[in-house]
Amino acid sequence: MKNHLLLLLLILSGNVLGQIDKKATLQTRNLYRNLGALARTGVLFGHQHATEYGHGWSGEHDRSDVKSVTGSHPAVIGVDFSGLSGRPADAIPAYAEGLRNNVVDTYERGGLTTVAWHFSNPASGGGFYWKDSVSSASMALIKPGGSHHTQYKQILKTVGDFAKSVRAKDGTLAPMIFRPYHEFDGDWFWWGKGHTSREDFISVWRFTVSYLRDSLDVHNFIYAFSPDNKFRSEADFLERYPGDEWVDMVGMDNYGDFGRDGKYDLDAGLKKLKIVSGYARKAGKLAAFTETGLESIPNPIWWTETLLKTLKAEKLDLCYVLVWRNDTKSPTHYYAPFPDQVSAPDFVKFYNDPYTLFENDLKGLYR
């Protein structure tokens, strides 16, 4: 019953944040408003690919490593649109079907899906990473008027068709947080700052939202803008911001300040989260800690003494925090604990803290 009284008061007061799709489905509008309310007193916990696979397993119904440790799935499940392009056309339907089942299952359990897009370069090889001598600087090519713009529209059509296919048994569409072109302030992706101008990035972002929303009638997306952690000021954070009329949620991906390679700068991490949250308050948007984590989690108290302490240090109004995936084969590439992992006992403390919300805590997220 966490946060329900506050949520009801906000709904009755008509406190609706600045959602950019005026034709959004009822469930998507409710989700947007409810996330804003919940962020005032807690934070939803998320894990990438949590129910698709985990440490040493894959494709088991209703399983996640988080559930194996706590008894509950994460409140937020991360998925990826990577397989909707950049592969043979006959392979896409099977990928989409598995993804659809995952999104609908999460929605029917009462949880939330957030979507990353590791988008394979549509104009060259190299996949989603930038590879010297292989990759093309393709944001200039897929924008309106570019040589690959028609191809980009076809890819967005595949995304739009998927978005309109995720129907639950009651006929409603599952809302999703769509987070394209993340970590754009780095150079590791082909859409990164070193490979595209500010103007071209903003042009592609605006076209993407407009085409999905206004041309393809996709009305179950919440659009999230999330650089990596390179900014030091609000001006830096907004350097490639497409405008309030094109963004629903602002966020940040930040591994570097939270223990990567043994380096911690929690004061810097908190300062950046305050910039994100502060801008969201001013603009009437949602805010989130869109990616973080510590690979292999060697710090046995990372959850309470690093992550939770930072989240609770200031009034941040973040609706969720998401850690990265648990690879099914790698012995070291994981970001959430599993039974007997060294940080599992601390993660249970993190789970039990009233500030953190998992799937079992969510009641009426779409009402």
TrEMBL record:
Top-rank taxon: Bacteria
Localization: Secreted
Organismal lineage: Bacteria, Pseudomonadati, Bacteroidota, Cytophagia, Cytophagales
Keyword entries, A-Z: Carbohydrate metabolism, Glycosidase, Hydrolase, Secreted, Signal
Protein name: Mannan endo-1,4-beta-mannosidase
Signal peptide residues on this chain, from the entry's feature table: 1-18
Residue ranges annotated for the GH26 domain, each copy included: 26-360
Keyword check for Hydrolase: yes
Active-site residue numbers: 183, 291
Reactions this protein catalyses: Random hydrolysis of (1->4)-beta-D-mannosidic linkages in mannans, galactomannans and glucomannans
